[in-house]
Amino acid sequence: MYRSARGVLMNLVLMVRQYKHLPKANRVYFLGRTDAPLLTPIADDYVRFTSDWDLLRNILTTLQVEFDYWIKVRTSMLQTRYHVFLAALDAKEKIPRAETYAEDWMAKVNEYGVLDENFIARRFWGRTGTDRRAIGVYLNSLMELNARLLAKYCLRFEMVGQARLYDRMSRELRKTVETLLFDTKRGRWADYDVTSGHVPGCSPGCVAPLWTGTGRGDTEGLPEGLGECVEVWRSGGGGAGPELQGLVAAGLSCCPQLRPIGLDLASSWLSSLPSPSRLPLTSAAISLYLLHLYPEVEICSLKITTPNRIITNKLLLSLCLILPFAYNFHSLY
Q: Which of 165, 225, 217 has the alpha carbon at shortest distance from 189?
């Protein structure tokens, strides 16, 4: 298992060395679009389970290259009335999405009545046709995790100056998540639109700070704020498809007071699965991760109880989220 994980990790490292980021779905014709910056968390999981620090020393420069790409291309300073925040902005696509090329193309034609090749993909347009420029909770939480891990690695390898730089960026991104992206009215984290404020809805990304360790698990009002989203997630709404169920469950499992909610959601999701012979690969992988997080779950519909020896961890989730068929996940950022 570790040898296979190392092979996957090195393939991703080679891709970042060549393109400075992971292309969408790991495909060359998606070079204009990026996958989430998950390479550093994946490497951290691998090293944590194998203690292969020599490998980490060899690929540390590549991890820094990916983070620097996101800082230079997708991150900027956002000034509000009282504060200045370091924030990673959601992407603006100037070409149709390959997986929905015809739909994106025709949507733009119908909107303007003319062909316009230089347009932004439909999912980043608001109802009025203006650019949303959203600041996502998930993306900024993940960026903070990357900065924190890089600071730890640099300090371990006696790169004190770089460690201080990454630590400062980690603190700035944490301030963004805990201040700008926390909706005090709803009592939970929410994506932030630079033109209209916090984005309403129950995006699974609002539990990402718990999963990455960016947010405080004892934030006042957080359980009440998430309460209204539970029913939405249980029914599969709010964008919580198979690719995001692991993220929601992982985030809720990190907070003791929210773990019962996560257990309830995991039980509902797993009980609604089809027979194993018809289970898609993505759903199967996420199901294993849910069973790992909540070993007390009983899957009545499949007439099985969670084995005590399921060997899986966050590495599995990270790998699943960047597979070519996990398109729905990328709507978060």
A: 225
For residue 323, give the 3-state DSSP assignment: coil
Half-sphere exposure of 270 (CA within 13 A, CB side): 29
Where does residue 293 rank: exposed (0-12), middle (13-18), buried (19+ CB within 10 A)?
buried
The edge-to-edge listing of strands for the beta sheet with 197-198 is 134-135, 192-193, 197-198
Please state the length of the chain: 333
- Do residues 132 and 124 lie in contact, with contact meaning Cβ atoms separated by under 8 Å? yes
Mean pLDDT within 209-231: 69
Q: Given pLDDT bands bounded at 50, 70 and 90, which one contains residue 146?
A: very high
Question: Does residue 86 contact residue 42 with C-beta atoms inside 8 Å?
Answer: no
pLDDT digits (tens, 9 = 90+) for 64-83: 999 998 888 877 777 666 56
Residue-level pLDDT at 22: 79
Judge contact between 322 and 38, C-beta under 8 A.
yes
- Among 81, 170, 185, 176, CA closest to 137: 176
In whole angstroms, give the CA distance from residue 42 to residue 128: 39
Contact 195, 188 (CB under 8 A): no
From the list 207, 209, 260, the residue with the least C-alpha distance to 238 is 207
Exposed e or buried b for every residue in 211-239, given b needs 16+ CB within 10 A? bbebbeeebeebeebbeebbebbbeeebb
